[in-house]
Amino acid sequence: MKKEEVPQDKGNLSKNNIKELCYATDENGNYTTALSTGWEPKTIALQNSLQDINERIEKAKEDVKNGISSPIVYFMEVHKMDWVVLSSYVGMWIWRIKRHRKPSVFKRLSNKVLSKYAEAFEISVEELKNFKGE
């Protein structure tokens, strides 16, 4: 796209007076950089992604409240982690972490194991143990 065609739509960036660096071509056809305040399709995609994340967080919260999942699932969603990422943070196999999502298994976890999760989620062990989805 040409430098003068770089989108300047109102978006999430323009609210905070932030601009995004984009590559464009100048009048001679050479690549250069240009600043953009936003692009409507990108803004819509970002809003849809954030809405999806918030829905997953609310579902995880309800699952904890209803005794379907352990708090690990909720905090994993809040921190935008998946099983692979959480596994690398806590240094455990994925299958083991997936077992810990069961409330019955979670209740029996040692403080040593819980402290690994708490550190990954940047909360205390007590906050992790006492989270009831409320």
Short description:
The chain has helices at 12-15, 40-65, 71-78, 83-90, 94-100, 103-106, 111-121, 125-130, and strands at residues 20-25, 31-36. The protein is mainly alpha-helical.
Mean pLDDT: 90
Major beta sheet summary: 2 strands, antiparallel
From the helix content, strand content and strand pairing, which structural class follows? Answer: mainly alpha
How far the N terminus sits from the C terminus, by CA atoms, comes to 49 Å
Which architecture name of the largest domain does CATH use?
Orthogonal Bundle
**Percent in helix:** 55-70%
Ranges where pLDDT stays below 50 over 5 or more residues in a row are none
The best one-word shape is: elongated
> At the third CATH level, what is the topology name of the largest domain?
434 Repressor (Amino-terminal Domain)
Radius of gyration of CA atoms, rounded to a whole number: 21 Å
SSE succession: HEEHHHHHHH
Strand arrangement across the biggest beta sheet: 1-2
Please work out how many helical segments DSSP would assign.
8
